[in-house]
Design goal:
The complex is a heterodimer of chains A (367) and B (344). Chain A has helices at residues 42-49, 72-76, 94-99, 114-126, 142-155, 172-188, 200-206, 224-227, 230-236, 272-280, 297-303, 318-330, 346-357, and strands spanning 2-13, 16-22, 25-27, 31-35, 57-62, 65-66, 79-82, 160-164, 192-196, 209-214, 217-222, 243-245, 250-252, 262-265, 285-291, 306-310, 333-336, 361-362. By secondary structure, chain A is α/β, with parallel strands linked by helices. In chain A, strands 7-8-9-4-10-11 form a 6-stranded mixed sheet, sandwiched between helices. In chain A, strands 1, 2, 3, 5 and 6 form a 5-stranded antiparallel sheet that branches. A 5-stranded parallel sheet of chain A has the order 16-15-14-17-18, with helices on both faces. The longest helix of chain A has 17 residues, at 172-188. In chain A, 43% of the residues are buried. Chain B contains 14 helices and no strands. Helices cover 79% and strands 0% of the residues of chain B. Classes of the chains: A alpha/beta (367), B mainly alpha (344). The A-B interface holds A 50-52, 72-73, 75-77, 79-81, 83, 85, 87-92, 96-97, 100-101, 103-104, 106, 108-110, 117, 121, 134, 138, 152, 156 and B 1, 4-5, 90, 92, 218, 220-221, 224-225, 227-229, 231-232, 234-239, 277, 280-284, 286, 340, 344.
Chain lengths: 367, 344
């Protein structure tokens, strides 16, 4: 049963259309995330959806009823929002902020019942801010403020939660916590969640549906697994300098283009930190011999100026070893990041011995 | 948790009690202090309706009491008007005086007075209020127009001050070139003063201000929601257009009332709401609206007492006194806020 259903929705400011042809289907309990470059219109879509802006065309149905036909109070009980902008004000305690979420439920003077008080504390507890209930909002960190605003939105007991860049001011720990809270709200409270995110790795982890916005339209739409490919993400964000590694959800910067100065004998993931260190010093390097399915291969692919690869699950062949040796001979020195050798990479050990003979080997603390 | 709630209510109760006691003390001392000092015993006798000393009775009931009532109502109205504007612009330095709204009202009242007086018609209180309301709405219109263009609050305040100067300048021209000797009164009024209040004025302002304050109080709940910003308020179900219109109209009526009867009074609208926020340590409009009214009443009453006694028999304009007390408060507030911002 679709909770949100938009057809041919068009959004923008006044006459200026920003995104068109928006067809979204969102069920309760699902998380839908809009991704795409800055300024592409993600916020505009959310603003139209929360009726801060009026839609330019098409239809949007919320819970079997046209969005435009809701009155403010009715909608307030269905939908709540968390925005990017910072909230200011003197003498707000966290509780004051969260209490505002009860607005649609209280009488004309806003007097609280015991149940209202309980719901406020529950919401604060959910975002782990209960201990801060009586603290002044202005004295909190950005991450804590964001969580209090989330508690306000939860306290409003919506069926759909709309968040615009909720993770923007959060450090890594709170990003993970936020992801957990959102997942909990979707599953346990059966909320539909619609949000815009910059953190594409986070979006991939928690979204049931990812919507990619590009060039004024919905470019791709579907489950994250279907959408996330290194090529597509690079295309979506117009990444020309650098790359995005989907398997590890890591951003990598572009390799140093010069001929390699250092050859890294690696494998099994031991090489990653060496690659990063070399990149930071902007020293061009080669890597090998790696297996195609090695955990560090994607990183080496993005950062190394040349790389020798062996097929997955095959021992390193004589042929590949010779290829690596050729590259190695042109390098100034060799670093060995491998701690042990086995059947599959026995030839790498020969490579290492060769480097030792040539007096090219330097230790891992080479710089 | 419940215990905590009770403590907070007790704290608010204590603050209100302090304000009420302060108001009571100011009223009593305002009655007894003046160009003729009256002992507390005589004050008590006269208040009880004892006409033994007819001179004292007349002074108290015809001169001081209307003036005191006016100071209470107008001081409260001005403060609440400032508070509303601060909510509207989500900025604590908004107020009817700095935004030029008082001056706009002053200009139209001066114009109306001259028109009527030169035609030999005495203006009724209602007409005074109405003309002031028109002026304050015109000024407010300008301010809103500017606020649509510039999002920066300090720019808005500068524009407001400019509007204020323009209106005051025009007003001065009019007063200077007006022929009638009746205009002498107008000069005093245009500087701001509670002098010469009549009971007819007081009853008019009492009705208008009481009604307006009740309406403001009824808006406490949406005001509470609006403090998070327009977008959140809309999402919470506040009808933004209607709410904003109501705030503008009410703050306009309140400040127009003040200007119509007492001329423009500076700084009360900014300084007192700030003091009240600091005193109550809350942002809840339901507490702050009555708090602001009481606080403004005390503040204006005390300032008026100072204005008429310090250099007696010469009276200072009320604005000189409110500025001396109010402006430093505003400066301290700005400096503190700046410090907070750089820290955050």
């Amino acid at each position: 049963m679709e909770y949100v259903l938009t057809e041919q929705m068009r959004v923008g400011y006044g006459k200026h259309e920003i995104v068109q042809n928006i067809n979204l289907h969102l069920k309760r309990g699902e998380i839908m995330t809009l991704i795409g470059p800055n300024g592409v219109g993600k916020s505009t879509i959310l603003k139209s959806f929360t009726r801060q802006l009026s839609m330019l065309g098409g239809t949007c149905v919320l819970d079997n009823k046209e969005l435009e036909t809701y009155n403010d109070r009715e909608l307030a009980k269905k939908m709540s929002i968390v925005l990017t902008g910072r909230v200011q004000g003197e003498y707000f305690t966290c509780k004051d902020i969260v209490e505002k979420g009860r607005y649609p439920y209280t009488g004309s003077f806003g007097i609280f019942s015991d149940e209202d008080h309980r719901k406020v504390m529950e919401a604060l507890e959910l975002v782990n801010m209960k201990d801060y209930a009586d603290c002044l909002f202005e004295q909190l960190s950005d991450g804590q403020k964001q969580r209090v605003l989330l508690a306000k939105a939860v306290c409003q007991e919506p069926e759909i939660l709309v968040l615009d860049e909720p993770a923007s001011f959060l450090d890594i720990r709170y990003k993970l916590e936020l992801a957990q809270i959102l997942k909990h709200l979707a599953k346990e409270k059966n909320m539909a969640i619609l949000m815009a995110l910059h953190e594409i790795d986070l979006a991939k982890r928690i979204s049931d549906i990812v919507v990619c916005i590009k060039d004024g339209k919905v470019d791709q739409y579907g489950e994250p697994e279907d959408i996330y490919s290194s090529d597509y993400i690079s295309k979506l964000y117009d990444i020309k300098q650098g790359s995005y590694n989907v398997e590890g959800s890591l951003m990598e910067l572009p390799p140093v283009k010069n001929p390699p100065e250092i050859f890294v004998i690696a494998g099994g993931g031991f090489g990653i930190s060496v690659y990063h260190k070399l990149w930071r010093k902007q020293i061009p390097f080669a890597a090998g011999v790696l297996h195609e399915n090695d955990i560090e291969t994607p990183v080496a692919k993005s950062l190394a100026s040349s790389i020798v690869l062996e097929r997955a699950f095959e021992p390193v062949s004589e042929e590949k070893m010779m290829e690596a040796k050729k590259i190695l001979q042109y390098c100034k020195s060799v670093v060995c990041a491998c701690e042990q050798f086995g059947t599959m990479n026995m030839n790498n050990k020969l490579l290492l011995n060769y480097a030792k003979e040539q007096n090219m080997l330097i230790g891992p603390n080479f710089l | 948790m419940m215990k905590k709630g009770n403590n907070i209510n007790k704290k608010y109760g204590l603050c209100f009690a302090i304000l009420l006691v302060l108001l009571f003390v100011s009223v009593i001392s305002s009655i007894s202090v003046g160009s003729t000092n009256i002992s507390f015993k005589e004050v008590w006798n006269a208040l009880c309706g004892n006409k033994d000393n007819i001179v004292v009775y007349r002074i108290i009931w015809d001169v001081r009491m209307p003036r005191i009532c006016a100071a209470i109502f107008l001081g409260g109205a001005l403060t609440v008007s400032g508070y509303l504007l601060q909510i509207f612009f989500s900025n604590p330095i908004a107020g009817p005086f700095v935004l030029g709204i008082s001056s706009g009202a002053k200009l139209t009242v001066a114009l109306a007075m001259i028109c009527f007086i030169s035609n030999g018609v005495q203006m009724s209180s209602g007409m005074l209020v109405l003309s002031a309301f028109i002026g304050s709405m015109v000024s407010m219109g300008f301010v809103l127009l500017v606020s649509g263009k510039v999002k920066n609050m300090s720019m808005l305040v500068v524009c407001g001050v400019m509007i204020g100067y323009i209106c005051s300048a025009i007003c001065d021209f009019i007063v200077a070139f007006a022929e009638d000797s009746n205009i002498v009164n107008l000069h005093n009024w245009s500087l701001g003063s509670f002098a010469g209040m009549l009971w007819s004025h007081v009853s008019c302002m009492a009705v208008v201000i009481t009604l307006a304050i009740i309406c403001v109080f009824l808006l406490s709940k949406p005001m509470h929601a609006y403090q998070l910003g327009e977008e959140y308020a809309k999402n919470l179900g506040v009808n933004i257009k209607r709410f904003r219109l109501a705030i503008i109209l009410l703050s306009g009526i309140l400040s127009a009332c003040v200007t119509a009867f007492a001329g423009p009074i500076s700084f009360v609208g900014i300084a007192v709401p700030h003091l009240i926020r600091v005193m109550f340590k809350t942002s809840k409009p339901m507490v702050l609206v009555p708090g602001c009214f009481l606080g403004g009443a005390c503040f204006c009453l005390i300032c008026d007492m100072i204005a008429r006694t310090v250099f007696a028999p010469i009276e200072l304009s009320i604005s000189s006194v409110t500025a001396i007390f109010g402006a430093p408060i505003v400066i301290i507030m700005l400096v503190k806020r700046k410090a907070n911002h750089t820290r955050g």
